[in-house]
Amino acid sequence: MSATLKTLLGFWISVLLTHGFAIKVSLAAVMARTTGAPIVVTGSLVGIWLFWRYVKRALVRGIPTETQFNSVPLSEVSGLYTGKLTEYCQDLISLGFQQIHAGQLAAESGGQSPNFVFHFSHPNDSCYATVFQTVDSNQNILPVSCSIISFFQAGELLATTQLTPTGISSLWGNPKHFWTYLSDATAKTLFDTHLDRRQTLTKQLRLPIMPRTDWDFYAQWEYQQAKERKQRLG
User: Fold this and answer.
1) How far is CA 183 from the centre of its chain?
2) Are 67 and 32 in contact (CB under 8 A)?
3) Of 29, 91, 101, 129, which has fewest CB within 10 angstroms of its CB?
4) Distance (Å, rounded) from C-alpha 174 to C-alpha 87?
């Protein structure tokens, strides 16, 4: 039996169980009104639980679970707009960022879509930057995206990005992460906006900034994020 067929079968079984439970509740209520007997519900909550499991798994499919970074040169990756990637990198370097890593994100499922990501850090302003590009499920090349990220010592995170938020990522996002979305912003606009908002958060919420700017710290954070996403799948 295929995975798709199993998913559909599980969905309809959960729906039938859930609806059956609801019907029993309705019948019990009608009997109580006509006979004066107390409401006794014998339906199983298993249907509701199965339905919630199905909905939850459908939602988390939209959450990425990449954890492994493969260090490969950009010249070995085909199917991407390498010129645009390089342009964003040059813009970040002109702003004082230093490259700390470059390579691909390897999917845990074993599949590998063409993608490439550059990681930068800013030693003077204690923040990170990423420049990323990949393709979608239809093999269409997606636009290059740039993000600026700062960490706070209490575990909070501030990100200013060109990425467009989705309902899935917003629903399952960490409440301690603060996001600013500027889809058409340049690297300089992202950086300036990021520093302005970070200064506001630091003053209003008294959040001390994490001074780390090394690759090991960022890679560990990515690993922890993927670990939390996997826990949500359980």
Assistant:
1) 17
2) no
3) 29
4) 31
- pLDDT at 122 (0 to 100): 98
What are the phi and psi torsion angles at 99 (to 5°)?
A: -70, 130
- Cβ contacts of 80 within 8 Å, gap of 6 or more: 114, 115, 116, 133, 134, 135, 141
Mean pLDDT of the chain: 75
The β-bridge partners of 158 are 150, 178
Domain boundaries, the chain: 3-60, 68-233
DSSP string, 161-203: ESPPP-HHHHHTS-TTEEEEE-TT--HHHHHHHHHHHHHHHHH
pLDDT (average), residues 207-223: 90
Backbone region of residue 135 per phi and psi (left: phi > 0; alpha: psi in -120 to 50; beta: other values): beta
Range list of H helices, the chain: 3-35, 46-60, 82-94, 167-171, 187-204, 215-233
| φ, ψ for residue 97, nearest 5 deg | -80, 155
Model pLDDT, residue 82:
83
Using one digit for the tens of pLDDT, what is the confidence trace for 52-100? Answer: 666 666 555 555 555 577 787 888 777 787 888 899 999 999 999 999 9
CA distance 210 to 158: 11
Q: DSSP code of 97?
A: -
Q: H or E element: which one contains 129?
A: strand 127-134
Kindly state the tokens that stand for 175: 């409440």
